[in-house]
Amino acid sequence: MLADLLSIEKVTVAFGGIVALKDVHLSVRDGKTTAILGPNGAGKTTLFNVIAGAVSPTSGTVVFQGEDVTAQSPSKRCHFGIARTFQITQPFGGLTVLENVMVALTAKATPMKQARAEAASYVDFVGLSAKADDPARVLSTGQRKRLELARALATKPRLLLLDEVTGGVDRPSIPEILNLIRRMREERGITIVVVEHNMEVLFGLADDAIFLNRGEVVVTGTMAAVAEHDSVRRIYLGDG
Ligand code: ATP
User: What residue stretch is flagged as signal peptide (predicted)?
Assistant: First the structure.
């Protein structure tokens, strides 16, 4: 097992005159959950997109499982084992919950019968079996987030990128989603990178963290150590 599943090395991203990331380094430990923290405009989404392959760095490299994947497309990275969820979930509303998961599988050329059984196991894992035959459009926000997790699981990721996975979800449904994410890591050994504004959620999930400000790394380390940093306390805990 590699110590670091993913490393971001000296990554800079410039959008015209705006430098969204500057010389960013990040190591993501295998089997752990890493949080990307920072105030608005800090570069969190850009870093997330650099890992997923949706944004190409102006300079620097992205290394996944020891391979330089900087030039690889998002779909190629998905094939290598990098999956992502979206802040705004994007299921096919007219398809059933089960079919939505099957689509993620058939993209990998799984035979239909096998796809159905396999998709059912992911739907069950995320606790949506009772909704398997309902159209995705009738799901609540929390259920849609869980469907999104099932679709990501169907791509058999080594690394899962979660964008605001509890955003818009009613409070009582949040623990269920957190529990699911912990199970993904513990039972399936999936490494997770998360962008999330809710600090309570982050404390419940993250082992490690990186805190960005204006595109630069302010501090990295364990979640507990990063949370103690003055700038982090100021922004997330309202100190000072
Ligand atoms: P938020 O918490 O508000 O979502 P963030 O930390 O995710 O912010 P980014 O969205 O990564 O920050 O943005 C970092 C900087 O890069 C901002 O100044 C933003 O305006 C700029 N930026 C991001 N994407 C683009 C783009 N496609 N074109 C131009 N500028 C961009």
Answer: none
